Amino acid sequence: MANKIRVALFISQLSLKKLMRNPKIWVMIFLLGFHMWDAFLTVRYKSAELGLSVSPWSIPFIFNTDLTLAMLLMMVVVWFCDAPFMDEHQPYTIARSGRTVWFYGQVVYIIKGTFICLLLIVFFSILPIIDRFALSDQWGRVYTELASQNFIMESGSILNFNVSPEIIGRYSPVIATLLSTSLFWLNSIFLCLLMFALNLKLPKYFGTGLALFVAFLGGGSSIYNNLGSFTDVLKKIIPTCWCKIDNISNNPITGRVSFVYAYTFLFIAIIALIIIAKFFMKRYIVEILPHD
């Protein structure tokens, strides 16, 4: 058993190294950095206007913005769109390790790879404000001012990320950040496993297309907000919507899903997708691909 675990971890590390050698990853990292720099222009302007430093707690607001959330989730999907990660070397790796060990190695790779994506997002949420950065356990006046309706009305601007007064009022910065990052990570794992399972059985474009669609729905709530009661139904059944913690509440009066529901749903969905993908993997025809 211990040897199988070591082999699975080794396979996951090999897949991670292959990912980091892929040019598309570095292009997407550059685009991520560019988008985040642009998103923080308003924060930098407000910080300079007030003459105050900025606290590091921007992640809940980044994930609370439709366009940015959709982009980040779809970025994760594109990173792992080559699922089930077959290349000219994998058939030989499967022959030596066995299908089950290889499969769990790829699951670990997805977990590790999506966590690296999350770390990159956190890094690029700090980089644009590094010259104005100050550690604090409070939201700080900059974000409090940006959350006020008066600021939005006076400036006439639409913020590049949504500084929600509800988040500031309901949560401490640490709790909000932990909730946002954990839900984003679990959703990233969910989307990648969805692709992995479907691409083992169906053409790749089907699994990738469905994952992109679910990712888009998570950040596209502003598009279907006018659908009445159907909007509430979508926000209860589409897990990517829960990266926006504004869509979750433990108060049953609000009609939103609870955090217990969100985490339970995601954990069950992830386990179910692993079981389904393993079933498909046992029947997957491994083809020997030609070397370049």
UniProtKB/TrEMBL annotation:
The chain crosses the membrane at residues 25-45, 57-80, 101-130, 174-198, 205-224, 260-281. This is ABC-2 family transporter protein. Keywords: Membrane, Transmembrane, Transmembrane helix. Signal peptide: none annotated. The lineage of its organism: Bacteria, Bacillati, Bacillota, Clostridia, Eubacteriales. It comes from the Bacteria. It comes from Candidatus Limousia pullorum. The keyword Transmembrane helix applies.
